[in-house]
DNA sequence: GCCACAGGCTGATATGGCTC
DNA sequence: GAGCCATATCAGCCTGTGGC
């Protein structure tokens, strides 16, 4: 019905006002021009804020977290909720000791919705943002136009730990067995001062750590050694250059064939890459101007990591200019494999759905991205169809 | 300058598997 | 059995980019 309809699935009412006909990937199809999905309201719970803690991330951003009296909500027990930043604390006027209403956004993420003002303790004081880093006591800075407050000490022990964790994480060097706790131990024991030191670790050194033994120590050393095989773009991502995530790292790797070439490049040269703007370009240049970063890269080079790549010959790119979003679990591919496949065939992988998305690949238990894709008229494909699309090459 | 879009960053819980 | 890690899923906020 071109004029629109309302329908109901499992108690969820979807209203479609009208349709239009669009050319989607060579097929003429009808898509809703305007639609609203009515969903169940999020379930809420009431609890008390025991404490507001401040955590330090790898970039030095200091983030407030509400430590809550544990309360069951939507199938899990909530004990913490991010407060995002000092402005959010001010907006909510949340204080230690406050009774608050919480809910799980999208049934996953705990969120403080509001404070129950009438239950506020008499002597409560407004939460104050710290003047010093909670870890290293360095003064905190807040730059004009930025919401975040930052610890500027690049040697802050927490930043060092987080950078190493980031370097080792799955989407970077993918070092199995090197998680938060092991990184903490390595840094505390003085065995590692930066991620470059990982490659000179010996099994005997690791063995002496808590909960490490004759089996896990060699496993960790072997995992670190295996990571030397990660491709150039992953190494670039793992370096932790600010503003350079997986996507930007791939773009840089497609333009520069070695880290030396990238380090020599000017902001203008970097800026000439499509989708890279002045902020990212400046951030890359600044990274390679830092002596400490160059020293760590030296360690990586001596360890034999892939700091260069051969120019790729461009084969057929059947997915060229097509943007994909993945939601849910696929049975034949991990998310990473599916993403790599899309990129290798010329496609673009995105994390959020928009009108510009060409395909939403929906696996088992898809999330809200599928709803959004449907509402925007994005072509939805299942795993079989995804396989056919990628086989066309 | 405004706006839409995309990516980056930080944070959350649950569960299964592995190691000690 | 305890503890840790990996994995999966997503939110919310912020920022960068490019088009108009």
Automatic annotation (TrEMBL):
It catalyses: NAD(+) + (deoxyribonucleotide)n-3'-hydroxyl + 5'-phospho-(deoxyribonucleotide)m = (deoxyribonucleotide)n+m + AMP + beta-nicotinamide D-nucleotide. Belongs to the NAD-dependent DNA ligase family. LigA subfamily. It is an enzyme of class 6 (ligase). SUPFAM superfamilies: BRCT domain (SSF52113), DNA ligase/mRNA capping enzyme, catalytic domain (SSF56091), Nucleic acid-binding proteins (SSF50249), RuvA domain 2-like (SSF47781). It comes from the Bacteria. CDD domains: BRCT_DNA_ligase_like. The keyword Zinc applies. One of its GO terms (biological process) is DNA repair. Keywords: DNA damage, DNA repair, DNA replication, Ligase, Magnesium, Metal-binding, NAD, Zinc. GO terms for cellular component: cytosol. Its cofactor is Mg(2+). Its EC number is 6.5.1.2. This is DNA ligase.
């Amino acid at each position: 019905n071109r004029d629109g309809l309302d329908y109901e699935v499992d108690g969820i009412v979807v209203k479609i006002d009208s349709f239009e006909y669009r050319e989607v990937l060579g097929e003429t199809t009808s898509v809703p021009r305007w639609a609203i999905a009515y969903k169940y309201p999020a379930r809420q719970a009431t609890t008390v804020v025991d404490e507001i803690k401040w955590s330090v991330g790898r970039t030095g951003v200091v983030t407030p977290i509400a430590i809550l009296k544990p309360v069951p909500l939507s199938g899990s027990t909530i004990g913490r909720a991010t407060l995002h930043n000092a402005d959010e604390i001010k907006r909510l006027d949340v204080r230690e000791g406050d009774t608050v209403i919480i809910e799980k956004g999208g049934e996953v993420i705990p969120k403080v919705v509001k404070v129950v003002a009438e239950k506020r303790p008499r002597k409560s004081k407004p939460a104050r943002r710290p003047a010093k880093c909670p870890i290293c006591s360095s003064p905190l800075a807040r730059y004009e136009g930025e919401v975040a407050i930052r610890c500027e000490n690049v040697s802050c022990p927490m930043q060092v730990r987080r950078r190493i964790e980031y370097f080792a994480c799955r989407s970077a060097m993918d070092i199995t067995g090197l998680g938060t706790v092991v990184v903490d131990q390595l840094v505390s024991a003085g065995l590692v001062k930066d991620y470059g030191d990982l490659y000179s670790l010996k099994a005997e050194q690791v063995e002496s750590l808590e909960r490490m033994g004759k089996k896990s120590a060699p496993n960790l050393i072997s995992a670190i050694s295996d990571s030397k095989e990660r491709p150039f773009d992953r190494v670039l991502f793992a370096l932790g250059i600010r503003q350079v995530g997986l996507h930007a790292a791939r773009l840089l790797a497609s333009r520069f064939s070695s880290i030396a070439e990238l380090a020599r490049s000017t902001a203008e040269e970097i800026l000439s890459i499509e989708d890279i703007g002045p902020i990212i370009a400046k951030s890359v240049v600044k990274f390679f101007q830092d002596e400490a970063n160059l020293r760590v890269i030296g360690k990586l080079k001596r360890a034999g990591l892939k700091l260069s790549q051969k120019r790729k010959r461009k084969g057929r790119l059947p997915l060229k200019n097509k943007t994909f979003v993945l939601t849910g679990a696929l049975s034949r591919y991990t998310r990473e494999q599916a993403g790599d496949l899309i990129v290798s065939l010329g496609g673009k992988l995105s994390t959020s759905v928009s009108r510009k998305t060409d395909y939403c690949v929906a696996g088992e238990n898809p999330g809200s991205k599928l709803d959004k894709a449907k509402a925007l008229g994005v072509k939805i494909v299942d795993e079989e169809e995804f396989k056919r699309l990628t086989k066309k090459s």
